[in-house]
Amino acid sequence: MCPLLLLYLLPGVSGLPFYNGFYYSNTPNGRDPGTGHGEGIFNGVKLVVETPEETLFSQLGANVTLPCRYRYEPALLSPRPVRIKWWKLSEDGAPEQDVLVAIGLRHRSFGDYRGRVRLPQGGEREASLQIWDLRLEDSGRYRCEVIDGLEDESGLVELELRGVVFPYQHPRGRYQLNFHEAQRACEEQDAVVASFEQLFRAWEEGLDWCNAGWLQDASVQYPVTLARQRCGGLGLAPGVRSYGPRHRRLHRYDVFCFSAALKGQVYYLEHPEKLTLAEAEEACREDGARIAKVGQLFAAWKFRGLDRCDAGWLADGSARYPVVRPRPNCGPLAPGIRSFGFPDPQSRTYGVYCYRPR
Description:
GO terms for molecular function: hyaluronic acid binding. By secondary structure, this protein is mostly beta strands. The protein is 11% helix and 35% strand.
């Protein structure tokens, strides 16, 4: 026969359940829904984990600290050993990713974070996570969990790399990519599939695109700043319009990619002649560089102010050019990346944009 577990409510302790000498919070995971941090009560002492509510911004290749501190109310006279765990939350239904686990001075990091993360040493009640050499895939939401015996509390930290969102189509044209192909297409252009938050911020900054594209959570959406008949109709307000989640393998759309700020240089190669695609690739190699990718050109336009009216080949076989200052004879009177699509690779109509890593 199983032993009977008796649970009592004691008067004068805010109605908290009492068992085996401990008080337990009656909110999920001890989190107070009215605050920005986790709280739990045990042995008459409350464990509080505090993380920032605002999103942290950084850039590709930088080092960053994700703040997380914990304390007790009332304060304890002597320190207690705790276990600290960090993991990255999933954005697209994949399993959550372990980042680091630490007990005292001992810690272990996991996967792509191995050798790039640590906890600060010497800080009292400090559980912050330091990450070096940020990568595109590091952007997202992280959970900081502090475990003290039977009690564990946690808080969220959101990290976003500064970057640019751009729509991308397959060379065969519109709506050719399933979700897995969309992921590969962005990776091939030095980018990742954009999140909804990144697309929404790009829409706030003026991104307007009528073709629907995959996002990181496998939903399909598109941003509209100017309502028009051929873009959902005049009766709909501007915004990010959604088709909702789609089948990752069967459905096909374009994709919205996200590329972070550059670590190198993108430039138009001054060359005496126009080039075929193969000649363009070789010309960049001879100049000690390589032909630029679409994500690199967008990042150079967005963050380095690259402005050029000359169309040039890119690594995917497309021809494009960046405009920061619209002017006559340089395409539409709006900033952006102009595209000539995917011309015949034997055409000698274009120059080339090269990328030289820093």
